[in-house]
Amino acid sequence: MALVKLADAYPNYKQEIFGGDDIKGYDVYTEKDDKVGGVYDALLDETGRFRYLVLDTGFWVFGKKVLVPVGRVQMDYDRHRVYVTGLTKEQVESLPEYSDNMTVDYDYEERIRGVFRPAAASTGVAAAAATQPSYSRDTYKYDDHDQHLYNTAEQGQQRIKLYEERLFANKNRQKTGEVVVGKHVETETAQVSVPLDKERVIIERTTPTDTREVTPGSVDFQDGEVARMEVYEETADIQKKAFVREEINIRKEVTHETVDATETLRREELDVDTDGNPVINRNR
């Protein structure tokens, strides 16, 4: 099965797993308190479980990087240390060297297990380690065949994750309506009054009351004598003209409001039950 590096499996591993701490750089010691190097990285399987710590031996074995099964290590978070059970310089020299750009396959892991199985059997960590059941690269399982190498609970340590729920507020922009502003033509009948002047000719005929005789020869009787008078009148001139009656400005404005939401959040708390008088460090 494929193995991945710690940061590839958990990009935020410092917060998610180690409470803001970083095991990379932890000092590595033997059971006899001899410093042998530091933690360079960790490898996890496809289920997310730790399988190996990458140990940089520094000057102990000429800067060689090797893989140590997690079942052989004990963590001391308070002192930023890792202790490897039964680790010797001969073991490190026998282990295959690890590099960042290599692929850790089944055959490579078998070489590692071949180094640590005899040591486990000799120290009594697992009585069944000396006689391994038959398996192949297709049937091998860490927890079935090499629990003493990969089961951290057997080394007196176990990790529990405490989860909590948090509220995250986001905003979604969505269309709630549409306003269409247009115009149309309405018709109406308008009436206007225009005063007009018209001229008319009035002919008045009167009979003089003083009838005097006209001097003979002063009257010239003629045919066709006429009097002319021009007559005018006003007519209505009605026209339609267009004017700007009103201007319409269209714009948008944003109003702000706060929406309050209430949710019930869950958080896991640690319960520690003790039997007897064990010494417990509650800082981690």
UniProtKB/TrEMBL annotation:
Coiled-coil-forming residues are none
Q: Where is the DUF2382 domain?
A: 160-272
Q: Which domain of life is it from?
A: Bacteria
Family annotation (InterPro entries)? Bac_photo_RC_H_C, DUF2382, PRC-brl_dom, PRC_barrel-like_sf, Stress_Response_Assoc
Q: A Gene Ontology CC term for this entry?
A: plasma membrane light-harvesting complex
Which BP terms from GO are recorded?
photosynthesis, light reaction
Q: Where is the PRC-barrel domain?
A: 17-89
Sorted alphabetically, which PANTHER family does this protein's record hold? Answer: STRESS RESPONSE PROTEIN YSNF
Among NCBIfam families, the record links this protein to: YsnF/AvaK domain (TIGR02271)
Under what name is this protein listed?
Answer: DUF2382 domain-containing protein
